[in-house]
TrEMBL record:
InterPro entries: Acyl_CoA_acyltransferase, GNAT_dom, NatB_acetyltransferase_subunit. Its EC number is 2.3.1.254. It comes from Phallusia mammillata. GO terms for cellular component: NatB complex. Residues 2-156 form the N-acetyltransferase domain. It catalyses: N-terminal L-methionyl-L-glutaminyl-[protein] + acetyl-CoA = N-terminal N(alpha)-acetyl-L-methionyl-L-glutaminyl-[protein] + CoA + H(+); N-terminal L-methionyl-L-asparaginyl-[protein] + acetyl-CoA = N-terminal N(alpha)-acetyl-L-methionyl-L-asparaginyl-[protein] + CoA + H(+); N-terminal L-methionyl-L-glutamyl-[protein] + acetyl-CoA = N-terminal N(alpha)-acetyl-L-methionyl-L-glutamyl-[protein] + CoA + H(+); N-terminal L-methionyl-L-aspartyl-[protein] + acetyl-CoA = N-terminal N(alpha)-acetyl-L-methionyl-L-aspartyl-[protein] + CoA + H(+). Component of the N-terminal acetyltransferase B (NatB) complex which is composed of NAA20 and NAA25. Belongs to the acetyltransferase family. ARD1 subfamily. One of its GO terms (molecular function) is protein N-terminal-methionine acetyltransferase activity. Pfam families: Acetyltransf_1 (PF00583). This is N-alpha-acetyltransferase 20. It comes from the Eukaryota.
Amino acid sequence: MTLYRPFTCQDMLRFNRVNLDPLTETYAIGFYLQYLAKWPEYFMVAEAPTGEMMGYIMGKVEGRTSENWHGHVTALSVSGEYRRLHLAASLMSKLEEVSEKKRAIFVDLYVRKSNQVAFKMYKKLGYVIYRTVLDYYSSANEDSNEDAYDMRKATVWDINKTSTIPEKAVITPDEIAP
């Protein structure tokens, strides 16, 4: 039976195996600690009965106005040996529940255009492409920067789903509102 629990500081000593996936963005320790301090309810772990970390999700709630108050998925990763068990979908559902409790209008995330497995999963979970962000993911070779899909899912607080209707279909990273 999978245990879903809050992420702790000690988990940073145990999540390297989960982060080994080349499509998982990794951050400096301070970045993880900032999320843990500011948005602990958005930082969760899926743990095996053996105590091994199977995956995690990290996110936050943000926005300057009631129209753009939203939950954001910063990172979602499941260890290779625990894939195809619907852990990512369960973690997403838990983050969406937290967002709705905080009266978020939508939940958003960014996914590499080349990551078709993740893209298809998000689509199956009800997310739609809100817009494309050009060169969102940088690489060592500037010529191979990769575009991202900015995907959104309206919550129960957006009855008409207006938060999923883009103003602009393609933007640059500079145009992303803080």
